[in-house]
Amino acid sequence: DGKLVESGGGLVQAGGSLNLSCAVSGFSFDDYAIAWFRQSPGKEREGVSCADGADYYGDKYYSDSVKGRFTISRDNVRNIVDLQMSNLGPDDTGVYYCAARFIGWTDPGCTTRGAGTLHDDFATWGRGTQVIVSP
């Protein structure tokens, strides 16, 4: 069975940076899109970024709330997806999860064809890492 393990969370002051990592094991890494989601207090879970694989390798997704501040990268040798977060603010506080989605034959792994919205059926999840941004 596939396993995802997040690391790198912590406490940071507003304006600071953090790097999160998602280590993936147990399945063919290149066949899966890997996304980062966050669950902030009082808010719905939000998909913040995604790095695609297979034929869509190199394609990336960012939510509007993090675009220009977060950078996602995937290493298909070490089976790791990193999320570099900069210029953090209190609204970035939450538990950050990485998740995997098998890349099928019809759509890119991260986003729907046409609309370009992040898929909502990521099937394998990590346990999360806490990020706290103090004012």
Low-pLDDT stretches are none
Mean pLDDT: 95
The profile of the biggest β sheet is: 7 strands, mixed
Strand tally is 11
Number of helices: 0
**Structural class based on helices, strands and sheet pairing:** mainly beta
Short structural summary:
The chain is mostly beta strands. It is 0% helix and 47% strand.
Please tell me about this protein's structure:
The chain is mostly beta strands. The chain has strands at residues 3-7, 10-13, 18-25, 32-39, 46-51, 60-62, 70-75, 80-85, 94-102, 124-125, 129-134. Strands 2, 4, 5, 6, 9, 10 and 11 form a seven-stranded mixed sheet that branches. A four-stranded antiparallel sheet has the order 1-3-8-7, with no helix packed on it.
Features:
mainly beta; 11 strands; 135 residues
What are the SSEs and their pairings?
Elements: E1 3-7, E2 10-13, E3 18-25, E4 32-39, E5 46-51, E6 60-62, E7 70-75, E8 80-85, E9 94-102, E10 124-125, E11 129-134
Parallel strand pairs: 2-11
Antiparallel strand pairs: 1-3, 3-8, 4-5, 4-9, 5-6, 7-8, 9-10, 9-11
